[in-house]
């Protein structure tokens, strides 16, 4: 497993006029959380909890999940955000335990929140565990593969029911826990202005959002030119999502691989992205890129760049533009 050689340099706080974007980690286990903390991450931007469910003969019980979530929160300070995404199986992460029927096209089938809403017993157990752990730090809940307002309403109604249950039994939890939406289905991106009125925050899952927007598999090397974060259609969509959230004073992070792509970083800064969440392996390089921002590029220069790429027609033009405007990155 990856271990950082040296702590990531803390990024200069004067960046972006006093506030800087957060740099967080994507993890799938407690040990990765410990590594993230020792590498200097600001928190956990994405805990892929499905890995707690995989490779075993029975579903993890509430107590086991609670202990894992609590240990992750405790590995960071009480203020650091720890974003727990509910189980996101299906698609590229089948779970035999669920005994679901095979599908012709699993990426367009039962995935993520759709499964959690079918198996509310599992969702409720997971929410109870995460809510109990929220008494120990800044846990936030994140729902994957939300495609409609209805799914979001159902998810949050279940959160409210679980909270009521915990209150009745006198169990401690954070009554003001934030709940967020993963924007990774184009329908959610299109509805972002409405969803932003409802959710506390967005996290853009670009791995899936690009795949569904470009109709190009995230795992197919021959389609890499289509599954490209610099595709103008992708940049326009992300820009709209960020604006929709900011219009409602909501924060947006990106937890897909795009957040760690060198050529995308200055554009995302120019769009005003609030947090970058990347693998532990990518923390130090993204940290370096984010600190360049404060040393060399002012906010207006970044903003102008993000606007100018909106008028380009090809990903290759965007790449050339970034190389020309930000030579120090390459
Ligand atoms: C994404 O889709 O970009 C994402 C972060 O989720 P996952 O890679 O787990 O599908
Ligand atoms: Mg995803």
UniProtKB/TrEMBL annotation:
Main location: cytoplasm
Catalytic activity of the protein: L-histidyl-[protein] + phosphoenolpyruvate = N(pros)-phospho-L-histidyl-[protein] + pyruvate
Entry keyword Nucleotide-binding: no
Required cofactor names: Mg(2+)
Sites where the protein binds phosphoenolpyruvate: 48, 85, 207-208, 218
Swiss-Prot/TrEMBL keywords: Cytoplasm, Kinase, Magnesium, Metal-binding, Phosphotransferase system, Pyruvate, Sugar transport, Transferase, Transport
Cellular component GO terms, alphabetical: cytoplasm
EC number: 2.7.3.9
Subcellular location: Cytoplasm
Annotated binding of Mg(2+), by residue: 184, 208
PEP-utilising enzyme C-terminal domain segment(s): 14-290
Keyword Metal-binding: yes
Molecular function terms, GO-annotated: kinase activity; metal ion binding; phosphoenolpyruvate-protein phosphotransferase activity
A Gene Ontology biological process term: phosphoenolpyruvate-dependent sugar phosphotransferase system
Active site: 255 (proton donor)
Family: Belongs to the PEP-utilizing enzyme family.
Domain of life: Bacteria
Protein name: Phosphoenolpyruvate-protein phosphotransferase
Function: General (non sugar-specific) component of the phosphoenolpyruvate-dependent sugar phosphotransferase system (sugar PTS). This major carbohydrate active-transport system catalyzes the phosphorylation of incoming sugar substrates concomitantly with their translocation across the cell membrane. Enzyme I transfers the phosphoryl group from phosphoenolpyruvate (PEP) to the phosphoryl carrier protein (HPr).
